[in-house]
Design brief:
The chain contains 13 helices and 11 strands. With 424 residues, the chain is an alpha+beta fold. The longest helix is centred in the middle third of the chain and has 24 residues.
């Protein structure tokens, strides 16, 4: 895959256009389109409360061995990891039996600054903390935790379908299309809104966050490819990040609205920035990362509450264009060990750390994606404020393939994949 060369002579000193009245009106229209009507919000807030009560009070008698992924079929549910049954069968745990227990916590997030995309569907978020009793001491190794998490989700899905027959409840892939760590979505036929239910263990129940540093191995290749035994101690940075997201994402999503509350211009600018990335197919820059980036700029006084929308948006774009990826940025503590930071920089081309310093919120961004974003943001800066450029900047779709000279796809057979792993 060859990415077309971005312009080498991007003029960052272009004349800054003032915000015209027409551009301001376009921004206001976009902001109105982003908000669901009050009736829809009230409706789904009430549904979310009922769903939360169901999750807290349900009693399910289903009991199985955690390695048994087929038993849910009698309830009309397919275990999300059924395709990985062979790998799950090779895992171990000190708690081998799965049985229902009430969740440690169920939290409804009704106000979220990460819901920034223009959409006709209003989304409520519910965060479910798994009960400690279903987890063993070393369940963070291999697919034990994902398998038990999915068992718990199967229980919740059965309960939701039984208690809320007028709604559709089903599994949906997690962030970045993650099928190992899916979520549950509850919706209805009106498509006016939905509820997204996230599941994760508490840090105290699974392992300390330091256990998921990028230079630590938590999944053994031999459990999937028995003939490959010499790769078991290799670091698994991407898998570690996927586990950490299920544990640490709720705290991050709760933090963002608190930081952005009563800062209307900043939230509006953030929503427009999110539109800009989504219209270009740069899904790696998800709503949560962009919101975190904006909060970081607030902390550094790069953007402030008193700035107008266009100034905030321009400063936000400039900050990404000038993002120095040779250093780690984010919310990590000042005393975070240098070895941990070095491990992040070695494993990921872009690093934005959460409060613990172990979850890299930007772990899905490639170097090429950032370069493409920087080049296009540089060109977009000169058009900000121009009403004639609004649709091109924020509404029109920019096709993925237009950014490449050539595109090819390579499909490997299972045998070829094994050979590739063995020789890499």
């Amino acid at each position: 895959m060859k990415r077309s060369r971005p312009d080498d002579d991007v003029d960052m000193q272009s004349v800054v256009k003032p915000m015209t009245n027409a551009f301001r009106l376009q921004c206001e229209d976009a902001e109105r389109d982003r908000h669901a009507v009050p009736e829809v919000m009230v409706k789904w807030e009430e549904i979310a409360k009922k769903v939360a009560i169901t999750l807290k009070t349900t009693k399910l008698k289903h009991v199985c061995q955690y390695k048994d992924l087929e038993s849910w079929k009698k309830h009309g549910v397919t275990h999300p990891l059924s395709q990985h049954a062979a790998a799950v069968a090779k895992t171990t745990s000190s708690v081998t039996e799965y049985k229902w227990a009430p969740p440690e916590e169920v939290v409804i997030l009704s106000e979220s600054a990460v819901d920034l995309l223009c959409s006709s569907s209003f989304t409520m978020h519910i965060f479910v903390t798994l009960p400690d009793s279903i987890l063993g001491k070393r369940d963070y190794i291999n697919l034990t935790y994902p398998a038990k998490r999915a068992h718990y989700m199967c229980s919740c899905l059965v309960a939701l379908r039984k208690a809320h027959k007028d709604f559709e409840a089903d599994f949906i892939v997690g962030s970045g299309g993650d099928a190992i760590f899916p979520n549950i979505r509850v919706s209805d036929k009106t498509s006016s809104g939905s509820i997204l239910i996230h599941f994760g263990a508490s840090e105290s129940a699974l392992a300390k966050t330091s256990r998921f540093a990028p230079n630590i191995s938590n999944i053994r290749a031999s459990t999937i490819y028995p003939e490959i035994a010499d790769k078991d101690e290799e670091a698994t940075p991407m898998f570690n990040q996927r586990v950490l997201r299920t544990i640490l994402e709720p705290a991050m999503i709760r933090r963002i609205p608190a930081e952005l509350r009563h800062k209307e211009n900043i939230v509006s600018a953030l929503a427009l920035a999110t539109r800009w990335f989504r219209s270009r197919g740069l899904k790696e820059f998800d709503e949560l990362l962009l919101a975190c980036f904006m909060v970081r700029l607030l902390e550094e006084n790069v953007v402030v509450k008193q700035q107008d929308l266009l100034t905030v948006l321009r400063n936000f774009f400039l900050a990404i264009v000038n993002w120095d990826t040779s250093v780690a940025i984010g919310f990590h503590p000042d005393d975070l060990e240098d070895d941990v930071i070095s491990a992040h920089l070695a494993a990921f081309p872009v690093v934005f750390l959460d409060d613990t310093g172990y979850w890299n919120v930007a772990n899905g961004i490639s170097k090429d994606s950032l370069l493409l974003a920087k080049a296009d943001l540089s060109r977009s800066l000169s058009s900000l404020g121009d009403c004639l450029a609004f649709d091109t900047l924020f509404l029109e779709r920019h096709h993925f393939f237009s950014s490449f000279d050539h595109y090819f796809r390579l499909d490997l057979s299972p045998e070829s994949k094994k050979l590739l792993c063995k020789t890499s």
